[in-house]
Amino acid sequence: MTESAREEGLVTGVVLIVSAVTWVMLTVNPGGILSLSHCPVTQSGASPASFRMLFEMNPPSSLAAGWALMLVAMMLPTLIAPIQHIVSRSFRHRRLQPITLFLAGYALLWMAAGAVLLAAELMLGVLAPKSYLPAAGVGLAAFVWQCSPIKQRCLNRNHNHTELRAFGWGAKLDALRFGVSHGFWCIGSCWALMLFPMLLPQGHTAAMAAMTFLMISERLDPPAPLSWRLRGPGKLIRILVAQTRIRWQSLRPNSTSPSAVV
Q1: What is the DSSP string of 67-91?
Q2: Residue among 13, 9, 18, 23 nearest 212 (CA)
């Protein structure tokens, strides 16, 4: 195995481990340490009292913490390719800084977008508590957006991994700009897929997992012409099926081996 392949494998492993740990935190939430924003908190309908109750039970710090965990769990696996791009173009002893700056720029935009999506979630939670109608509406919008040429443009720009300088403030600026740019196009691609699970009265974790699977899969497709077409998780499913078949074949005993002869 080449040095480059080892480094790519290390990046993939670290990212998937961090994402898996975050998924456990979102699922288990030990001791109720996080008040996740996607939990409905009021049944009284739209009124000043219901809005006060909503913000008392979901302070901004808890909302930000829940959104940050959701962001890490769902979006970090989609960043494997850009992080590998930074690693391949950085000196080994300088890699941590550009990766950190890239993630900071990316997270900055997504946290700002999260404020808008959380506000929409809270508003719809008051207007239609325990209702699947908001999720259904956003789901329809997400489907249309998923098929649109604008979605394809955002996906294409997510593949645009520009050159990064290796030294000085230019290297820092390039890494930060790369994170901001990637975050901008990522928001354009995934905003509806992120909002949909937040609006479900039940089944948030399963919906988040399904949206994550879809977002990872569409990142594996190469840039394509702008057009209306259905974009689904087919490529990732084919890869998993092929890898499972290969592993299964490697575990099966050889029918011509002495142990298989009666």
Answers
A1: HHHHHHHHHGGGGHHHHHHHHHTS-
A2: 23
Q: How do residues 108-134 score in pLDDT, each as one tens digit?
A: 999 999 999 999 988 888 888 889 999
Give the amino acid at 90.
S
Which tokens is 39 given? 């939990």
> What's the gap between Cα 153 and its chain centre?
18
* Maximum distance among all Cα pairs of the chain, rounded to whole angstroms: 80
Residue type for position 48: P
The answer to pTM > 0.90 is no
Residue 26 CA to residue 37 CA, distance in Å, equals 11
User: What one-character DSSP code corresponds to residue 254?
Assistant: P
Angle at 32 between CA 29 and CA 199, to 5 degrees: 70
Contact 164, 171 (CB under 8 A): yes
Q: Percentages helix, strand, coil for the chain, rounded to the nearest 5? A: 75, 0, 25
Distance CA 234, CA 169 (A): 42
Contacts of 182 (CB under 8 A, 6+ apart): 79, 82, 102, 105, 106, 158
Q: Which amino acid is at 49?
A: A
**For the chain, how many helices (H) and strands (E)?**
10, 0
State the helix-helix crossing angle for 96-127 and 80-88, rounded to 10 degrees: 160
Q: What is the pLDDT of residues 156-188, one digit of tens each?
A: 999 998 889 888 899 999 999 999 999 999 999
Estimate to the nearest angstrom the gap between the alpha carbon of 112 and the chain centroid.
15
Long-range contacts formed by 21-25: CB under 8 A, 24+ apart: 22/69, 22/72, 22/73, 22/76, 23/73, 23/209, 25/69
Q: Quote the CA–CA distance of 44 and 126 in Å, as a whole number.
A: 8
